[in-house]
Design brief:
alpha/beta, Rossmann fold
Length: about 575
């Protein structure tokens, strides 16, 4: 299957449906709502960018969300799309409002069922008229099921399952449907048999921002306001759109086919938008029909200048000047090397450290030391979707600990203990399997993915990742279904690089589950409830009668505060 992406397939008679899964859940850890631009607001930036691009196109449109744009504007001012070190565009503010005739603001718990009812009806209408359907979904993804989190009121939203879409397609046999998914692990939708006929052909065209075992990624947070401005995958689409619209306007050369257009977007993703980490995106593409060799404009029926005109109408925010070129994700390796030669004494991030003793002050010091240990262990980019909230808290703990609330300190403990213990569990399993691997804390899974993306080794590791994930060896943290994926990749890559045949690897994995059963249970319990980090920490946890995990909203009200002597100076 080719790993390419393309501009969504829009014809004059296309039924366009947009879906944003972000809700208004308030995290006591960060004291921010999920829709904040620093948390999941980047998905809203994608949602409203496409909403503007498709305005006035197709046979019908409906854009589903559970967040009132007026409330978003009142709280956050504006939502922006693009790399902050290049030109960005405002996609939502008081001057850039969505089309009220096509926007559907639903109650959080009704978003998923109302969307599915609408999708079923539109698919029936489209099939009867032999017209295509385009579904664009912007949301979190579930690593185990590849489901999409849609609305709800909690941290983990209700899931739109592959089975749900499969049933809709089955109820409208022969429907021409295209799915654009920007969620983590969305590549699973391109390989599932649920979206294939009995002869193995795809029943839908599926374009995804990530592979079956990889997270999707936003642009890094801005230094001033700490905002993430849309996904890198969407920016790759826009980059090609701009250059191809200029080429068309100047009538240069022959029109590209849809497949060539798709490969150009992939090229931009690798070489322009994210040259150092482009391969980590592992964007996927599955075709429903054979029309991809047609000229792009014949395929869509809409000139590129239609998109170009709308795009140019969005207000532009000029680029920032980076104090360190390494902060700009679009900088090439050559540019960074030249910069480092010009500035040989430029420091990396310096993390403070100190000794500590037995007090509440010491407990927080200990947590901060663990935060430093974690950030030095190559945990992945801050901009990867599963890292947004954890790394936001961890970076605050290291750089501005006074910004953390009591809830945040406890939640940070949960996060660090779970992730560091997961890494230890992975190292134990590698040892039990008799494999050779470097220390997990020294291994960079993002760097490995960037170097090996698209290779046989990457495909084998991705397949083993799924096997390990589904085995249940690595538990999820209490109250969440989101894994920390580095330990799974560490174990999967160690297996692949061992050179052992797949049956032997699977046999050893199964054997290891029994050989180290007690160890796994012990580690798993450690992930669920802390007992041995230090006597000081145990005293803190016991005295405040709190379980070290993320409590459900109904239980948070009963949580007791830290003792008054927990205030501290750094």
């Amino acid at each position: 299957m080719p790993s390419i992406a393309t501009l969504p397939d829009v014809q004059p008679n296309t039924h366009i449906i947009g879906l944003c899964g972000v809700n208004d859940y308030h995290s006591l850890l960060t004291n921010q709502n999920a829709c904040d631009p620093a948390i999941d607001g980047w998905m809203l930036s994608d949602f409203y960018l496409f909403h503007h691009l498709f305005r006035g196109t197709g046979r019908s449109q409906a854009w589903f969300t559970c967040l009132d744009p007026e409330v978003l504007i009142r709280r956050h001012g504006e939502y922006v799309h693009g790399n902050c070190y290049r030109e960005r565009r405002v996609v939502l503010d008081r001057h850039t409002l969505p089309d009220p005739s096509t926007l559907r603001v639903e109650e959080p718990d009704n978003l998923l069922p109302n969307f599915l009812n609408y999708l079923r009806l539109q698919c029936e209408v489209a099939r009867a008229a032999n017209e295509p359907v385009l579904l664009c979904a912007f949301c979190h993804g579930d690593s185990l099921t590849n489901g999409l989190e849609i609305g709800g009121t909690g941290e983990d939203g209700p899931l739109l399952r592959v089975e749900d879409i499969s049933e809709v397609i089955a109820s409208s046999p022969g429907i021409q449907i295209c799915l654009l998914l920007t969620s983590c692990f969305s590549g699973g939708w391109t390989v599932t048999p649920l979206l294939r006929d009995t002869d193995g052909k795809g029943r839908a065209t599926v374009m995804t921002a990530a592979g079956p075992s990889t997270p999707s990624e936003s642009w890094p947070l801005t230094a001033s306001l700490g905002r993430a401005c849309g996904s890198i995958y969407t920016s790759a689409i826009i980059s090609v759109l701009e250059s191809e619209a200029t080429r068309e306007e100047n009538r240069e050369g022959q029109q590209m086919s849809a497949r060539e257009f798709a490969c150009t977007i992939r090229s931009d993703l690798l070489n322009i938008i994210g040259p150092r980490f482009g391969e980590t995106h592992d964007s996927q593409f599955e075709v429903q029909n054979e029309q991809w060799e047609d000229p792009y404009q014949h395929r869509t029926g809409i000139p590129l200048r239609h998109y170009w005109k709308i795009l140019q109408g969005l207000r532009v925010i000029p680029p920032r000047d980076p104090t360190d070129i390494r902060l700009d994700r679009s900088s090439t390796a050559e540019q960074i090397e030249a910069w480092q030669i010009a500035y040989p004494t430029a420091p990396h991030v310096i993390l403070a450290d100190s000794n500590y003793g037995g007090s509440m002050y010491a407990v927080k010091k200990a947590i901060r030391r663990k935060a430093i240990e974690y950030m030095e262990s190559h945990p992945g980019l801050d901009s990867l979707a599963p890292n947004h909230i954890p790394h936001l808290l961890i970076n605050r703990c290291i750089q501005n600990p006074h910004q953390l609330s009591e809830e945040a300190w406890s939640g940070l403990w949960d996060i660090l203990h779970y992730r560091l213990k997961s890494i230890k569990l992975a190292e134990n399993l590698v040892h039990q399997l008799g494999l050779q691997a470097s220390k997990a804390c020294r291994w960079d899974h993002v760097e490995w993915q960037a170097k090996n993306g698209g290779t046989d080794a990457f495909k084998q590791a991705s397949g083993l990742y799924r096997v390990i994930l589904e085995s249940g060896i690595f538990p999820t943290p209490d109250g969440s279904r989101k894994h920390y994926d580095k330990p799974l990749w560490y174990l999967a890559v160690a297996c692949v690089e061992s050179g052992l045949p797949s049956p032997e690897i699977e046999r050893r994995l199964e054997e290891a589950k029994h050989l180290v059963y007690e160890t796994i249970i012990s580690c798993a319990k450690g992930l669920k409830r802390t007992r041995t980090f230090s006597k000081v920490a145990d005293t803190w946890i016991t005295s405040s009668k709190r379980r070290v995990r993320t409590l459900s909203p109904s239980k948070r009200a009963n949580r007791r505060s830290l003792p008054s002597n927990a205030s501290m100076q750094f």
